[in-house]
Amino acid sequence: MNPGLYVFDFRFTEYFQMTIKPLLEEGKDGELIDWLKDISLLRRGQKCTNPDCQGTKPMEWKRARIVDKFHWSCPLCKKKVSIRTDSPLAEFHCSFKIILETIVAWCDGISLEEYTKENKNVKGVIAKRIYSTCTAATDWYMQTHPELTLLGGENSVVLVDTYPDGCMTTTPHNNNYTKRVLCVADTSHMPARIWAQLIDNKILDYQKLAAVVVGHIRPGSTVVASPSLYPLLHGVKGMAEVISVEALMALDPVDYQRSLKNLETIWRTTVSVCQDIQNTSNAEGEQMLRELEWRQVFPTPLSQILHDLAAHATAISS
Ligand SMILES: [Zn+2]
C-alpha cells in the first residue's frame, strides 16, 4: 500500500478513545478479555476434547501465570486449553494489546513495512499475518455482500474508466504496467463507492466488457465514461444519460482541465491501489481491489473490521 493512501489516525476516533484505549492500560487484562469475548474474538465457552470428559461438564475459566493471564481448565481431567483455541486470534502469537494495535495500524493505512519498522514489539511475520487476515476478512465481506458492488441509481453520477489507460489520473505513469483494471465509481457516496475488477488483456471482448459494466450500474444513473469505453456504453438502455469524459472536457476553460482534475480527485485512492497491484499475483490483486471497495464503504473501519474478523472466522470454520 502506498504511504499516505488511507492514512487516518484512528487513535483519535471516539471508538478507539472510549472503547479500546481504556482496555489497553496496565492491569486491565480481565476487562480486555471480557470485551474480546463480547465482540466474539474469543470464545465464551470450551468443551474438553478428552474422550472421557466429552459432553459432561464445560471447561472452567481460570486465572493463570501465562501471557494471556487466563486459560480454560477441565474440572474433571484438569486438562488446560488456551483461551485463544478456536478463536480468530489463535494464530496471532503476541499479546492481545499488540494484536489490537496492529489492527488499528491496518485501519490507519500504515504500510506493513512502516509499521514493523517503528514497532519493535511486534514480529514482522505476526504483523503480516494480522494484516492479511484483515484483508481476507474484507475480501470475504465484499464477496458475501454483492449488493454493495451494484452502484448508482436515479440522480447518481457513475464514473466508468480503465487503468492505466483512461482518464483516472493526469500524472504520467510507467508504461510497463501489465494489469489493466476496470473501475466504476458511484459519486453519490462520500467517499465514492468503488467496484473494480482486473481485465484480462488477452480475452478482451468489448461487448462482454460492456455487459459486465452495466451489470454493476443501476438503471437511471448518469454514466460518465472514458473515451475508450464511451462507444461501448453510449447506446446502453435504462440509463438517464451516458456522457463521455471528452464531452465534459469540452466545457472546461482552455487553460485548466477542471473535469480531469475533479475525476483525478475522485479516483486518487483507486489509482493508488491499481498501481500497488501491478507487482502482485492476480489473486492478490483482486483481493486488494475488494479491500479498496470495503474501505470506501467503511471509511472509519475499526469497529467494522473487528466485527468482520469474528464473522469471517465463524464462516470459514462452519
Ligand atoms: Zn477433561
Considering the chains and any ligands shown, give keywords for the structure.
Nucleotidyltransferase, domain 5, 11 helices, alpha/beta, disordered N terminus, 318 residues, binds zinc ion
At CATH's second level, what is the architecture of the largest domain? Answer: 2-Layer Sandwich
Strand neighbour order, sheet with most strands: 6-5-4-7-8
SS content category: alpha/beta
Order of SSEs: HHEEEHHHEEEHEHEHHHH
H/I helix tally: 11
Overall number of domains: 2
Give a written overview of the molecule.
It is elongated and about 80 Å long. The strands form 2 sheets. Strands 6-5-4-7-8 form a 5-stranded mixed sheet. Residues 1-5 have low confidence and may be disordered. The chain has 2 domains: 10-145 and 307-317, no CATH class; 149-299, Nucleotidyltransferase, domain 5 (2-Layer Sandwich), CATH 3.30.420. It has 318 residues and is of the alpha/beta class. It starts with 13 loop residues before the first helix and ends with a helix. It contains 11 helices and 8 strands. The structure holds zinc ion.
